[in-house]
Amino acid sequence: MRMTKTSPRNTPLDRRWLSSALAFTLMACGATPQEEAEESATRIEEAELAGTTRVRLMAANISSGNYQSYDPGHGTRIFQGTRPDVVMIQEFNYGDNSATAIRSFVNTAFGSSFYYYREAGAQIPNGVISRYPIVASGEWDDNQVDNRDFAWARIDIPGPKDLWVVSVHLLTASSTVRNTEASNLVNFIKANVPTGDFLVIGGDFNTDSRSESCFSTFSSVVSTASPYPADKNGNGNTNASRAKPYDHVLVNSALRTYQTATVIGSSSFSGGLVVDTRVYSPLSEISPAQSADSGATNMQHMAVIKDFLVPSDSTTAGITVLSPNGGESWTTGSTRAITWSASGVTNVKLEYTLNGSTWTTLTSSTPASAGSYSWTVPTTATTTARVRVSDASNSVLTDSSDAAFTLTSSSGGGSAQVRINEVLANEAGSDVNGEFIELVNTGTAAADLSGWTLSDATGTRHTFASGTSLAAGKAIVVFGAAAGIPSGVTNAVGASTAQLNLSNSGDTVTLKTSAGTTADTVTYGSALSGTDGVSFNRNPDVTGTSFSLHTSVAGTSSSPGKRANGTTF
Predict the structure, then answer these.
(1) H or E element: which one contains 23?
(2) Is 99 exposed, middle or buried (0-12, 13-18, 19+ CB in 10 A)?
(3) How many H helices and E strands in the chain?
(4) Are 436 and 420 in contact (CB under 8 A)?
(5) What pLDDT does 141 receive?
(6) 344-348 own/partner pairs: CB under 8 Å, 24+ apart
(7) The model scores a pTM over 0.70
(8) Fewest C-beta atoms under 10 Å: which of 75, 249, 419, 552?
(9) Peptide bond into 540 cis (omega under 30)
(10) What gap in Å lies between CA 273 and CA 291, rounded to an integer?
(11) How far apart are CA 206 and CA 248, in angstroms?
(12) What is the CATH number of the domain that holds 435?
């Protein structure tokens, strides 16, 4: 047996956040037992009561990239649109699988305040991602398969009980093998999980039917009974072809008591939700998920969601500003997120001050449960900025930034303007590392590219590293990989996903800010990408509103990192 415990080494925030995170809830409804789960969304909203916390659990084998990874972004958008609190994730691969890459994926799909555990040394690792602190974690040996194990985490959710989470990916070999895996896991659980705590087993079971013997085995520690999650059409099957119930969220009886309807927007799913973006309507309820995401090439399965209303630690109402909380330095005119935690509060009022005394209202009322508000930072530089979040109906209940933060204008003023200037989609020969996208800052101030992304029609191809800055009038080039950067090209990087994968027959290249706002987008056809080794470029260079083959603009095949005429930026 292999059992390891770790402290939450990937914990991104300080102890002050730990206390506020326990108070953060998606206060959508009150403490209703399971038999009331089929009440309407309106009834649930009216039942908001202090003393409960909605916890959304998700099983997710929704990778769609090569080598079973989350690189293309289809699964990321589903996570962003459904906003789970705890995820039992399978095939937990992203980028080069370094700690930096995995942290970047969690930040993008869930948020920088989320915790995670990812089993080590596995080809297609299981893992757990959580809004709440992971206080212990590790893996139990699955002796029926050699490329993953059972990943577990003990999570300090609000309330008197911890939540034990086990992320599983059972083998496809046969129902007999799956039952052996189930028996082994049940033994681990009985030996390690306190009987008084909450428990969930979730993930990809690869089960052909709900009558397989493994469910009978699992029933000694979790409930396997109906109702079962289903999509908008009532289909509860979860494999790619929607023919078999592969994926499950199974909880013990202590937690099953608190199951409630899964409510998203105006939609309510009494037994939980199978997320299939192709049939979900209205799709805007799970934005930014796109209709084709669940049917993307290589998409493994459908995600499964169940919601629970668990007793909270306290019935005391409270608000805590999380960011900006003091010491930050933000660029004037940029788009940033004001974040907060709240309990026992329905709507909040948001304000800011630039001088420490005069307050300006951003919004007089926005849902407290959102926990975030997109703010276009004022254009005035200051060292004394703060934000304030208050109960919209009770101004006495309020919190503001603990200390001042700074708004700075790069290069002494002005604004940045980053645009796509040159693209090589059809690399010379067959070295796809040589594909590139050139960006130019045509503004009068430096651009902070931290967290900005480059995507094609399929998904995100590059995320700029924290601290990346592009000076006014300068260019930066993103190549398919670092190996493709030509000698002498200095301000260039390899794509964070190790590929651009631009289509020679036509594609769309999109540049987005860290807040998800589109900074520039270019759609091209085969006329601009059909010539081997020839890029297409703005015409005229930098300032043009249309694109032409580089040979037409300057008589050469390409000019990465330089002006079309070969001179430096």
Answers:
(1) helix 15-23
(2) exposed
(3) 9, 35
(4) no
(5) 97
(6) 344/27, 344/50, 344/315, 344/316, 344/317, 344/318, 345/27, 345/317, 345/318, 345/319, 345/391, 345/397, 346/27, 346/48, 346/392, 346/393, 347/391, 347/392, 347/393, 348/319, 348/389, 348/390, 348/391, 348/392
(7) no
(8) 552
(9) yes
(10) 16
(11) 10
(12) 2.60.40.1260
Q: Determine which helix (DSSP H) or strand (DSSP E) holds 215, and give its type and residue range.
A: helix 213-218
Q: State which residues form the domain around 548.
A: 418-554
Q: How confident is the model at residue 16 (pLDDT cuts 50, 70, 90)?
A: very low
Mind listing the pLDDT tens digit for each residue in 36-72? 333 333 333 333 344 789 999 999 999 999 989 999 9
Strands (E), 257-298: 259-260, 262-264, 267-269, 273-275
3-state secondary structure of 162: coil
Going by pLDDT thresholds of 50, 70 and 90, the confidence category of residue 315 is low
Looking at the DSSP bridge assignments, the partners of residue 436 are 424, 479
Clarify whether residues 208 and 284 are in a common domain: yes
| pLDDT at 363 > cutoff 70 | yes
Among 110-124, 187-201, 400-414, whose mean pLDDT is lowest?
400-414
Share of the chain above pLDDT 90, in %: 69
In a domain, residue 496? The reply is yes
- Answer for the pair 342, 313: CB distance below 8 angstroms, yes or no: no
Count of structural domains, the chain: 3
> Bridge-partner residues for 87, per DSSP?
58, 129
Q: Is the pLDDT of residue 20 over 70?
A: no
- Residue 83 to residue 388: CA distance in whole angstroms: 25
Query: Do the Cβ atoms of 93 and 68 come closer than 8 Å?
Result: yes
Average pLDDT over residues 449-475: 92
CA 62 to chain centre: 12
User: Do residues 280 and 422 both lie within one domain?
Assistant: no
Helix 99-109 and helix 74-82: axis angle, to 10°? 50
